[in-house]
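Task: sequence in, structure out. Protein: Methionyl-tRNA formyltransferase.
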Amino acid sequence: MTNYIVASSKDWHRKAFARRQSGAADVWEYVSSPEELEWASEDYQPRYIFFLHWNWLVPKDIWSRYECVCFHMTDVPFGRGGSPLQNLIERGYSETQLTALRMSEEMDAGPVYVKRPLSLEGRAEEIYLRAGDISWELIDWIIRVKPEPVPQTGKVTLFKRRKPFQSVLPTNGELNRVYDHIRMLDAPTYPRAFVEHGDYILEFSQAEFGEEEVKAHVTIRKKQHDGKR
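Result:
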């Protein structure tokens, strides 16, 4: 038997993992926090650790000892860095590459195993689920083929991780800009598009784009005393 670890900070990956684990001949372990990652890597001594979506820096004593594969939503070296989905949509991209690469000391700079096309249509949650499905296909391929990753080549473009205040709804421009802004933030745990109105915060989701209008669901919340959402 071979041991594998799947690491994700997002709950939407758990169902796919449960389906894979059922009836598997090998040993699969799911981790969702740095603490779980640390003990699981020690206990299982995995052949691969697959990072589907991770919010924390992985310690060197893990990525240097085990073959750590992460999945990044750009055609690296273009788009290394944080918030790739939102940065791509803001730049007008409708399609990207989902890249499986080996983790290294520099973020998203490791050698590449494989890339696959990924559509950026729909809500953020739909795109993340789509990326998850493709990631599992790539995991199967990596386990079967055991490829040697190839160093990245080309011009490096860095993305910056977005801050919550950047989720405020645009105040000018074309309607498609409003639509894209709402949908690119419409996923669980992400700060949704919003506007402030007096004592209230208006959050937008489920956007639909028509010829002359954008329709969306609105959730109205009271501001906290400290002014935060």
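The helical segments are 14-21, 34-44, 60-63, 84-90, 124-145, 175-183.
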